[in-house]
Amino acid sequence: MTLELDILPLSSWMPETPYPLLIAGPCSLETEEQALSTARELAKDPRVHVIRGGVWKPRTRPGSFEGIGSIGLEWLQKIRTETGLMVGTEVANAQHAEEALKADIDILWIGARSTTSPFVVQEIADVLKGCDKVVMVKNPMTPDLSLWMGAIERLSAVGLKKLVAIHRGFSPYQETKYRNYPGWKTYIELRRSMPNLPIICDPSHIAGKREFVGEISQKAFDMGFDGLMIESHIDPSCALSDAAQQFTPSDLAKLIDKLVIRQQNTDDAEYGNKLDQLRSRIDALDTELMELLSARSEIVTQIAQYKKANNVMALQINRWSQMMNTRLGVAGKLQLNETFIKILFQLIHEDSVRQQTELIDKED
Ligand code: PEP
Ligand code: MN
Known about the structure:
With 364 residues, this protein is of the alpha/beta class. The protein has 13 helices and eight strands.
């Protein structure tokens, strides 16, 4: 399903610069001095368009810093006056949205925890109805494309046109070196489903650690994100939230210097020919893969019939563990990504068990 909502391109409201949209600033605004000194340093870099700063902080567990509150909106106003840059903050309920509108904050975003709740999103949408603000929507905590799209639809339905999605990764369901699971697949699906929606990446919350923010940012540009939101603090070691993932403004500039911005495509004929050739090989290999899966499925049917004749269960856990071990061994030799092979065979096996139970339970 593709949805073409009435959404304006970034270029219609973003200051004109040669760089993709770059939002930087502290996770949380803590003191006026911290807020202004971080913003002043960031503003020296012409690639930064927007200063961010959380004033109401949704913390997963109570007891940690929950934001400075409404006074932070005044600091954002000062930042805008001094630097001339746009400013943005997170709104997590109707009251936040009202206050942010009253303070004339340029960009309001809905955080990952709030996007998870359609009630909260609707409540915020009702307050923002008909306003001219830029509104950004982070993905929900779980890779649920419908929830993410639903939030954007709710905001579009109240007349908002300057909408942007922010990809910040998903709560990890298995061990990863990142704080959040990148889940690029969901980003790709959102791109396909809402082709005119600008989408930026928040590598800070995906990475969770400074050392990984650069690689995630580069991946984001490689995959066609329209911009980045990166956390930056004048003194990260003293930050009251997300200390491990924030950069000093000067380290952030060094990180950005290293990023390569890719062009969307090229008209070069030689490039086009070569790419076409490689793609047709991929097409042929994918067909072969599916023919192999079909042959595999025929054998699964024979196994199911044999089990049924002998009144044996479809699922054989020991066999499954052995299978996974041998597949992972082969994957290692073929230099295939272990996680990918694991997920692939989980899917293949799940479908094989489905096929077997259906056949075994079918009345003759
Ligand atoms: C944030 O941007 O500081 C934040 C809390 O992010 P998220 O909603 O992505 O967790
Ligand atoms: Mn943060």
